[in-house]
Amino acid sequence: MIASDTIPHAGIADARSSGAPRLASLPRATAKALEQLIDTMLAALHVESGVLWIEHEHTPYTLVTRNMTVVEIQAIQLAVAVCNQQHPVTLQVGGQSYAVSCSGHPLLMIYAAVKVGEMRPLYRKLMPRFTRLAQTLLQANASPIGMPADDPSHQAYRVVVESSLRRLCELMQATGCTMLWFSTWNNSWHRFAVGSVPIWLYQQLWEMPTPGNGLEVWTRGIEALIHQHGHHCVTDAMVVRNMVKGCVFLWRDKTRGGFNSEEVEWLRVTVQMIAASLDVLETQTELLRRVYQDPLTGVFNRLYFETVYRQILHNAQRHPRPVSLLLMDIDNFKQINDTFGHETGDMVLQLVGQVLQQVRSGDIPARYGGDEFVVLLPDTDKAGARTLAQRLQTTLKQASEQLGLPFALTLSIGCATVTNGDTSLLLLADQDMYEQKRNEKTPAR
């Protein structure tokens, strides 16, 4: 594990390839927020070039960049991997100086780097703040490596917790109860509470250490704080596979007396049942992610698309409404692979996947196979689909220009719309895409 206040050890560099950097797949709202953050950071530091990236399971994923090429980004990430100094630090890479800062915890490290002339006090003061802001933005949204935010398992997650805590409060005659759980979904704390939670306690619950980094000491401090405010308190750790992933606090007024041994044992059994249930839910979600998500691009895979495609068209047959589909492939992708290598080809696929995830939350972007992608658009007419196709082309062009790719990156996009759930939607989009290809190859007269 990487300590939260240090740069990764040199061993990470061995796990990286020397080719193009990997790109994180981000929800649209998160991507926009990070773009605003890096623009604000560059303006505040009076510099023009910078990059944000994350380190997830020893693999770097670039989040957003400004005025930096692929070669520069990869060189900085490799230099950070072999550096063993405290942050922020100045690194010399390719004859240029970069100030680098990081934040986060062992499960998800966030890095910011800017091109500078020399390390100034301003950089030491502000860069750690910007990396912490980036960490907050990522934790407030779905994990860039995880499932979509509207995953129905999240609802089951909350139902299991809140119903269990409410029953626990009733049985133990507690004034209030709160649970803290470190979720692998987005590598951050989830907080649940029932009953009366005093303001002084609520504020403390947001200053959480990471698992394995002073959690037990912090828990004892919270317990002492509750006692100081005139309450009896009992707490228990949530342990899964020998790892403490959270804790539960219960409290009641001292006039009701302390918690007896039977109540403490009941709490212990209940807490471990909750921990086991949450671990099962997270494991199921991880399995679903592996089944339905394309591991390279972060969008859904063909299996998920075909399942949802049939369901949405079936619903449209029963309740007629427009359904549109964008079918696309990357222009000259084989030539890009042959000329620049498969690592660059993979980065191009990741970039397209990143762009496709900037659609509306109800739309379904998926990798159909090879360099072919689809976006299924429920309740969208032909004009709306064409507008989205143009926006995707523009966004992809801007993203490729920011990375300084040595080739033009464009998509051939076919568009089709049906209003009665016609199952030939995919075929119609395929015909439209190849019609456009033929028109582009036909010389103008």
Tell me what you see in this structure.
With 445 residues, the chain is α+β, with helices and mostly antiparallel strands. It has 3 domains: 11-140, Beta-Lactamase; 153-292, GAF domain (Beta-Lactamase); 302-441, 2-Layer Sandwich (Alpha-Beta Plaits), CATH 3.30.70.270. It is 46% helix and 24% strand. It has 13 helices and 14 strands. It has helices at 11-15, 28-45, 70-82, 121-140, 153-172, 199-204, 215-228, 261-292, 302-318, 333-340, 342-356, 382-402, 425-441, and strands spanning 22-23, 50-56, 59-66, 89-93, 96-105, 108-116, 176-183, 188-195, 231-240, 243-253, 323-330, 364-369, 372-378, 411-418. The strands form 3 sheets. It has a 6-stranded mixed sheet. A 4-stranded antiparallel sheet has the order 8-7-10-9, sandwiched between helices. A hairpin with a 2-residue loop joins strand 2 (50-56) and strand 3 (59-66). The relative contact order is 0.10. Residues 1-18 and 142-151 have low confidence and may be disordered.
